[in-house]
Amino acid sequence: MTAPRRAVVTGIGVLAPNGVGTDDFWKATRAGVCVLGPVTREGCTHLPLRIAGEVHGFDVEAAVEGRYLVQTDRFTHYAMAAADLALEDAGLGPGPDAPFTVGVVTAAGSGGGEFGQRELQNLWGQGPHFVGPYQSIAWFYAASTGQISIRGGFKGPCAVVASDEAGGLDALAHAARTVRRGTDTVVVGAAEAPLAPYSMVCQLGYRELSLSADPERAYLPFAAEACGFAPAEGGAMFVVEDETSARRRGTRIRAVLAGHGATFTGASRWADSRYGLAHAIRGALAEAHCAPDEIDVVFADALGVPEADRAEALALADALGEHAAHVPVTAPKAGTGRAYCGAPMLDTAAAVLAMEQGLVPPTPNVTDICHDLDLVTGFARSADLRTALVLSRGLMGSNAALVLRRGPDATSPDKE
């Protein structure tokens, strides 16, 4: 009998407010650096949203060819650049020998709002002849999937997941299923660019959004002073492969996508998210054949809203039992902001790196923890990390959980 195909992570590409590339991202993440700051995007500085996580130091013209730049929004630029980094990390490149064996899956929460706003302004200000032909595709949720697949010559199964912020983890699960069904390689992830005038005005309708003007107080998950979340741009892409195919190529296996669970409990119904998230965690544990006490670290959703934070802490207690009070919990996104679908992708990247390095990164800025959690704050904590749990909830009601196992080829933990 043929053994089931196992989905493994062989490449990671990160484009985040605290670093471009995994090295810079991990250095800042493990140090607990907070990079939240005043919003500086053109047309946004007068809006009530004051603090966000912006990507700096990204040379888009060096990363993306001109013919793609004119067709695409900033969120696709980020995704394409992160995909290049992930492919390089995995030892793969564009123009594969067997293009139908490589697929692409991305998640998107807002699409290309900046591109769309510009073209609509041209329409109403100058007329239809001033609207470019790419308006029809650049704003679309599937734009990143399409452009990554076209640019790379990837002709395998492609998809876009639009299931709220938790769609980031759902995209990884979709990639794992695609691999198990016979596709050798899937480029998967999410990147967002919500810091544009139209997009920001839409976000102002979220009561969970923090309007604080203090970067160190704007996003304090699990703290008594929690006042909402600070948004962010950026995200991460991964190369997910069939383990046998990856070993045949001789590439490093960085992590195993072991289990996933997803539920839906309704928009802003944070008390109900306790039960939905707990059910998702149990589903992920069951698929991974993982006992609750095997979880070595939790990367929390960490919304920064008291009711939502309480529900998440209770969900962990419901799903993990007594172990929930002792397992290290962290929320590095408190220092970078929540990049919507890109947020759980960055948490997943951090989880893989944490398992490789034997370090739980801290939750920046938080000191007064008001929940029964072992929240890691201040400094990174050394630990033998074999299994990680990543959680995500969306503002519209989706809940997701992902269990990751440390890769068999992971480097020895560096605890310096």
UniProtKB/TrEMBL annotation:
<dbReference type="InterPro" id="IPR014030">
    <property type="entry name" value="Ketoacyl_synth_N"/>
</dbReference>
<keyword id="KW-0012">Acyltransferase</keyword>
<keyword id="KW-0808">Transferase</keyword>
<dbReference type="Pfam" id="PF00109">
    <property type="entry name" value="ketoacyl-synt"/>
</dbReference>
<dbReference type="InterPro" id="IPR014031">
    <property type="entry name" value="Ketoacyl_synth_C"/>
</dbReference>
<dbReference type="InterPro" id="IPR000794">
    <property type="entry name" value="Beta-ketoacyl_synthase"/>
</dbReference>
<feature type="domain" description="Ketosynthase family 3 (KS3)">
    <location>
        <begin position="4"/>
        <end position="406"/>
    </location>
</feature>
<comment type="similarity">
    <text>Belongs to the thiolase-like superfamily. Beta-ketoacyl-ACP synthases family.</text>
</comment>
<dbReference type="Pfam" id="PF02801">
    <property type="entry name" value="Ketoacyl-synt_C"/>
</dbReference>
<protein>
    <submittedName>
        <fullName>Ketosynthase chain-length factor</fullName>
    </submittedName>
</protein>
<dbReference type="InterPro" id="IPR020841">
    <property type="entry name" value="PKS_Beta-ketoAc_synthase_dom"/>
</dbReference>
<dbReference type="InterPro" id="IPR016039">
    <property type="entry name" value="Thiolase-like"/>
</dbReference>
